[in-house]
């Protein structure tokens, strides 16, 4: 199965599973988007539906973004500001890339919102995509609060599949939804695609991981399986 680079939005398209049981799959974009702020608003499932989406190891996702180099063509801030801080741009090593990402990307993602907590770009991206009301959550966020995905207050109930085990987890999820096993065998036979060329430890030193973890603590606390 194809690898998904980061969380996938909640689509509004409903499909119909076996015996007429509808479910809402993670496809396309989020439920609604505020055209003024660009913030997304995730939608809740109906009682007869289940929402699921995909999460990727934040460290692996960062390395993949660095290797892909989309940021070199579309930097997170005006080029003159980037060059003031990183004169060698776009020839950045991984530490410079992380520093650039941490410095400029939150400003772009937050707009006029000024949360009371310092948040990294991966955490902000997750909140923008999956919170029911991202602005409300960001404005009410206080030091010591966690990004609780299970209390139902700020986030809809979503079952997250992991990209590193996506074939198996997708197979098992569809099996639970009632799909015949003989229709799902091809999923397990598919090889991974679009994988990061280098392992994260070849790029990320323990010190650099600690810096990333400090910025993205809310995301790692929500998905402790990715804690180093």
Write down the oligomeric state: single chain
Strand content: 5-15%
Query: Biggest sheet, open or closed, and with what strands and sense?
Result: 2 strands, antiparallel
**What helical percentage do the residues reach?**
40-55%
Biggest sheet: strand arrangement = 1-2
Shape: globular
Gap from first CA to last CA? 26 Å
Low-confidence stretches: 1-33
Q: Helical region count?
A: 11
How many β-strands, per DSSP? Answer: 6
Order of helices and strands: EEEEEHHHHHHEHHHHH
Radius of gyration: 19 Å
**Mean of residue pLDDT?**
82
Q: Helices and strands in order, then pairings?
A:
Blueprint: E1 14-16, E2 22-24, E3 32-33, E4 40-41, E5 51-55, H1 58-68, H2 70-73, H3 79-85, H4 94-110, H5 121-130, H6 134-140, E6 158-162, H7 166-176, H8 185-189, H9 200-203, H10 206-215, H11 217-222
Parallel strand pairs: 5-6
Antiparallel strand pairs: 1-2, 3-4
Helix pairs in contact: 4-5, 5-6
């Amino acid at each position: 199965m194809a690898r998904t680079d980061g969380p996938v939005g909640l689509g509004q398209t409903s499909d119909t599973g076996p015996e007429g049981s509808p479910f809402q799959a993670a496809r396309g974009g989020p439920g609604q988007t505020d055209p003024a702020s660009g913030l997304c608003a995730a939608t809740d499932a109906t009682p007869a539906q289940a929402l699921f989406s995909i999460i990727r190891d934040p460290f692996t996702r960062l390395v993949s973004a660095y290797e892909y180099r989309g940021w070199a063509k579309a930097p997170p801030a005006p080029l003159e500001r980037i060059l003031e801080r990183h004169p060698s741009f776009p020839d950045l090593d991984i530490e410079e890339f992380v520093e650039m990402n941490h410095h400029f990307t939150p400003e772009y993602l937050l707009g006029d919102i000024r949360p009371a907590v310092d948040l990294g770009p991966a955490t902000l991206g997750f909140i923008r995509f999956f919170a029911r009301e991202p602005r409300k959550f960001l404005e009410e966020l206080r030091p010591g609060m966690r990004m609780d995905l299970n209390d139902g207050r700020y986030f809809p109930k979503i079952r997250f599949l992991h990209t590193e085990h996506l074939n198996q987890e997708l197979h098992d999820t569809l099996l639970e939804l009632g799909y015949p096993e003989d229709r799902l065998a091809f999923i397990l036979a598919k090889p991974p695609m679009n994988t990061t060329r280098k392992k994260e430890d070849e790029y990320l030193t323990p010190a650099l991981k600690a810096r990333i973890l400090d910025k993205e603590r809310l995301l790692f606390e929500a998905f402790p399986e990715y804690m180093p």
